[in-house]
Amino acid sequence: MKLKKLSYDVLDAAHKSNTNLFLVGAPGIAKTTYPKQWCADTGKAYVLIHCPIVDAPDVGGVVISAKDAEGNPVTYSTKPEWLVRVEGAIKAGYKEGVIMLDELPAGELLTIKALASLLSERGIGRWKVPEGWSVWCTGNRPEDKAGAARLPAHVTQRVSRIDIEPDDESFGEWAASVDMDWRYVGFSKFKPSVVFNTTPVDDPSQPRCNPRTFTFAHNFHKQLEVNGVLPTDDATQAIIRGFIGPAAAELFAFLQVREHIPSIEDILASPLTAKLPTAERPDARFAVMQLCVYNAKPTNVDTIFKYVKRLPADMAVTAAAQLAKKKELKGNMMNSPTLIEWISEDPELIARILG
Length: 355
Hints:
alpha/beta, Rossmann fold, 5-stranded parallel β-sheet, two-stranded antiparallel ribbon, 18 helices, elongated
């Protein structure tokens, strides 16, 4: 399932019903960040427990020896870190939240067995999960060679497992919302099979491209931009290759499309006549689509729409959907006469844009 189909309404129902979601898939495809974003958007706290570094005793609290009021020897468990963090969030004003058991299958077997009680009993011993809090999990597949093992049957039967697929559409909308460079977003649209490759790796020690490493590469590369130009020197390519492996060669080839597309200045000056890449250059079309999305502002969105509308229909709709996700355009989209005219010509367009 693609993350976009796991709607906020579905997540809300899972939360309210104390359903233990278990999101499983290849590394770097937003299994952890999507629920975190849902929490942020719905005013809930998000407490992440990275299972591979948690020891079994830490789950229920460290057991210490003591004596009761009558001097009899007893043992007590200290308050576990997950509960300390949950109570901290409650003190900070959060009434609800999610405890995310991240990378659960990569934890030690004893740790996983201890965490199983959180999933079925909503607590461990005397330490309980507060009302309004859910316990969800994520994990990679064993074939990803990311340290994940198969979960014991009694744990699997306490969760709802959802196999997550890469979602280039959701990635594109997210990338536009955080102003990822238009060339990188364009490449992800042009070569989704490269950026969203989930084929199990032969050698896990070698770098490979996925949305996470692609974003790392972008963040590094963007720091080197000068006057709108991303450098392509040997050192830069070596570091990018260190993030995304062989995909770097295709990325740098894509970055050479600049000569086949108009500048944003040309588009804003003459949206109806500015150069439009030909059908023989789909890479340039994807690039110019993202150029428009990246540079759209409340003051120029109508002009942008005039140019975007000239692109092939599927690209135009994709661009409009990404524009609808841009934070600075919230509340300004329907101020565009061009968009209103476009919707009047195709009444189903608004549903496709807001998807």
